[in-house]
Amino acid sequence: MAMVPTVLLGAVGLGLLEIAESATSRTVAWLLTTVAAMLLVGLLHQVLRPRIGYRDGLVLFYLKAGGPIEVPVHVVEAFFLGQGPAELPTRLPSQAETVNLIARLSQRESSWASKEVKQALGNWQNGYATIRGTWCEPLSSDLIRQLNRRLGEASRAVKATEGAAS
């Protein structure tokens, strides 16, 4: 939905560029078009980036503007499927539901129990990071098995590296 006003802004800029007669109006048209293009690139980047990633012993949760929330791999215990509100803009009192991806975090690591995230993308409370299925790839049992397998591999690799370093 955020792309609609951005595309309209770009269309106004291009339309103004077509009819512009003065240097000032051409400059304004180019500015509108450039701003719209930059906004569109930024929005596409947000939509296309993964919600979960991994790098150097950290599980990366992209659930807010800016950089990811970097969680040490040993804190993430497992992934599983859940269900919850889609958080789509609607006027209906009962919202549509979506399948969610949930990460269970270690209760021993209380500093990771709650984090501030963008509500439309997910929720992070009581040691569970929830990623709304509305904004990620289709979720299935196979994907959950793959994530848990990769989590196990990453955990073992980090432990092996720590063991070799000591």
Would you kindly provide a written description of the structure presented here, covering whatever features stand out?
With 166 residues, the protein is of the alpha+beta class. The chain has three helices and seven strands; from the N terminus they run H-H-E-E-E-E-E-E-E-H. The longest helix is centred in the first third of the chain and has 26 residues. The protein starts with a helix and ends with a helix.
The count of strands amounts to 7
**What does the average pLDDT come to?**
87
Radius of gyration, taken over Cα atoms and rounded to an integer in Å: 21 Å
Structural class: alpha+beta
List keywords for this structure.
four-stranded antiparallel β-sheet, 2 domains, 7 strands
Give the SSE layout.
Blueprint: H1 3-19, H2 23-48, E1 52-55, E2 58-61, E3 69-72, E4 76-85, E5 97-105, E6 122-125, E7 128-132, H3 141-165
Antiparallel strand pairs: 1-2, 2-3, 4-5, 5-7, 6-7
What's this entry about, in short?
The protein is 41% helix and 24% strand. The protein contains three helices and seven strands. The strands form two sheets. Strands 4-5-7-6 form a four-stranded antiparallel sheet, covered by helices on one side. A three-stranded antiparallel sheet has the order 1-2-3, with no helix packed on it.
